[in-house]
Design goal:
The complex is a heterodimer. Chain A is α/β, with parallel strands linked by helices. Chain A has helices at residues 49-56, 78-84, 100-110, 115-128, 144-156, 174-189, 201-207, 225-229, 274-286, 300-308; strands at residues 11-20, 23-33, 38-42, 64-69, 72-73, 85-88, 162-166, 193-198, 210-215, 218-223, 235-242, 255-261, 264-270, 290-297. Chain A contains 10 helices and 14 strands. Chain B has one domain. The chains are: A alpha/beta, B mainly alpha.
Chain lengths: 321, 263
């Protein structure tokens, strides 16, 4: 094994299968992330995203398949996996007893950075994420969003070649969310491969270079956001806000598919049926079935719904341990 | 150049060897102490109160406590404080990590897993020693014991605390449900206190139970501790060291295996 900078540091998962008894949490997952790439892993709750990343970082062992990073076999060498990959789990970070800056620096040093460089980097991150007012605050007194940002700074103060971020923007306010996305982008620009796990499709669409959609443990689509949307070219999204308590209206033949979450019914129609769609929606408003409607270009979310049968915020999605 | 550029340009070469182990151990000890910082004074104070209180309380079993019993009980309390910290506190804290969901992060840190176990052992020792010393000082004051402290108290304490801590640590990590771990360790404590010759001489036990205890570590822990604290009270100290050392090695091997395991 060498650390030669000439090595190809592409991350590769090949046919990764992980079973728990009869459950196939990951089923022959194959993907590649090149250095510098921000790669989104999208899927509903229980799709197998976290199971996959836990295997990358060596917390779980694949039932079969391989995970490699450059010259390293991450399955055979979990010690190297933990050094080469930084991991921000979706769950809480253990920072209650530490001050924000202190725990960022300590984690950076545990990650192998030297004290002076890590301190400098911690100060940069604190400034760039705009959390300076809490840098000397104990973790236990921080809000959920600030804790999340501190967690991000902890694992990226001295980033690995692969940075795994599991729902990094959870609980973060919209303004700091933008700052966080800038930092994620910068990690890629500086040479790390970023594996971003999320079920927030709209955010991911704007920020990732490539993405994969995972459902029931299988990778069901992969590509750039625009290549994934290409199949939906020529289609429009007609969104109906149903009057609370009213059933979903019967769909006319030109509606290709529809999903209801709460009172929000999302339908996909051909661009050429736009006029029919608007006419139908106006009729439903007139009948008091829906409150309002909106017609827009399809987004990655529509692709996601079509492929997984879930919306990105679907509260009814099944949970999987 | 920003620090990020500097950091990524040298992107974390994979480290290994003794230097990496020692550095990681130092870092993880800092982490564990920092993590417990707010609770540490309280936990240590509690251990002192428990150790001291136990030493005083056992005297109430007797109108006038015979010196031999006082010696067995007092030195036994010192052993019990070491065992309970290792068997109970470790599983409790690991259990908290599992419940709070911070376990995955701790386990994803880029340090050899054995450094996390070693750091925990260090913190456990810091927590347990004051309680042990308090128990002995208070017992000595209350019962006017003829204690003769020799250098051999150091290996005795070390073997006892390493064994108890590593067994507790292995249970805590190997058993997924913290509740189950706690029940098992509490049952262990109860069994140890009641049926191992720690607070009393082995002759007080039925013969079969005394023989069984020769194969378990607890009698030997008490025996080597008493050898380091008294003179002429115990025999077969060499055998006890031998058996206890075997248990210590086994517990370290067990803990190392458990922390290196992946589902």
């Amino acid at each position: 094994m060498t650390d030669s900078t000439a090595a190809d540091w592409t991350f590769r998962a090949a046919n990764v299968t992980k079973t728990f008894g009869d459950l196939r949490a990951n089923d022959a997952v194959t993907l590649e992330i090149r250095p510098g790439e921000v790669y989104g892993l999208l899927g509903p709750n229980g799709a197998g995203k976290t199971t996959l990343v836990k295997q990358v970082i060596g917390l779980l062992k694949p039932t079969s398949g391989s995970l490699t990073l450059g010259p390293y076999d991450l399955v055979d060498d979990p010690d190297a996996a933990r050094q080469l990959c930084s991991y921000l789990p979706q769950a809480q970070m253990p920072i209650d007893s530490f001050k924000a800056r202190q725990v960022i620096v300590l984690t950076g040093m545990i990650r192998g950075g030297d004290a002076a460089a890590v301190r400098k980097r911690a100060d940069e991150l604190i400034e760039e994420l705009d959390i300076g007012e809490w840098s000397e605050t104990l973790g236990t007194r921080l809000s959920g969003g600030v804790k999340r940002l501190v967690g991000f700074a902890m694992v990226t103060a001295w980033p690995g070649r692969v940075v795994i971020l599991d729902e990094p923007t959870n609980d973060v306010d919209p303004r700091r969310r933008r700052l966080l996305w800038q930092q994620i982008r910068r990690l890629g620009d500086q040479g790390s491969s970023v594996l971003l796990v999320t079920h927030n499709v709209l955010e991911a669409e704007k920020s990732v270079d490539r993405l994969a959609i995972i459902n029931d443990g299988r990778l069901i689509a992969e590509g750039t956001p625009s290549s994934l949307k290409s199949e939906d070219r020529g289609r429009m999204r007609l969104q109906l806000m149903v009057v609370p308590g009213r059933p979903t209206p019967e769909m006319p033949v030109f509606v290709e598919n529809h999903t209801r979450v709460g009172n929000n019914v999302m339908t996909v129609i051909a661009e050429t049926d736009s006029a029919h769609g608007i006419g139908w929606a106006q009729e439903l408003v007139g009948l008091g079935v829906i409150e309002e409607y909106a017609l827009a270009a399809t987004t990655l979310e529509d692709v996601y719904i079509r492929l997984t049968g879930h919306t990105s915020e679907d509260p009814t999605a099944e949970a999987l341990a | 150049m920003t620090a990020l550029e500097a950091g990524v340009s040298t992107l974390t070469p994979v480290r290994s060897g003794m230097g990496h182990w020692l550095q990681s151990y130092a870092m993880m000890t800092r982490w564990e102490i920092g993590n417990l910082r707010l609770l540490l004074p309280l936990i240590v104070a509690l251990q002192i109160v428990i150790g001291g209180g136990f030493a005083l309380g056992i005297g109430l079993f007797f109108d006038t406590i015979p010196m031999r019993n006082a010696l067995f009980l007092s030195t036994g309390v010192a052993v019990v404080t070491l065992i309970t910290v290792g068997l109970v506190l470790g599983p409790q804290l690991v259990g908290n990590q599992k419940v709070a969901g911070t376990y995955d992060f701790m386990w994803s840190l880029p340090v050899p897993r054995t450094t996390q176990a070693a750091a925990w052992l260090t913190v456990n020792t810091i927590i347990a020693l004051p309680g042990m010393v308090a128990a002995l000082v208070i017992a000595n004051w209350r019962y006017d014991l003829p204690l003769v402290v020799s250098w051999s108290i150091f290996p005795a304490v070390l073997l006892t605390i390493v064994t108890a801590t590593m067994v507790g640590y292995a249970f805590a990590h190997a058993i997924p449900k913290p509740m189950v771990t706690q029940m098992i360790t509490q049952l262990l404590i109860f069994t140890i206190l009641g049926f191992s010759p720690i607070n009393f001489p082995p002759e007080n036990l039925p013969e079969w139970l005394a023989s069984l205890n020769l194969w378990l570590p607890f009698h030997h822990m008490a025996n080597v501790m008493r050898a380091g604290l008294t003179e002429g009270l115990v025999t077969s100290v060499g055998t006890s060291y031998l058996v206890l050392t075997a248990y210590t090695i086994a517990s370290v091997v067990l803990a190392t295996w458990v922390v290196g395991r992946r589902d």
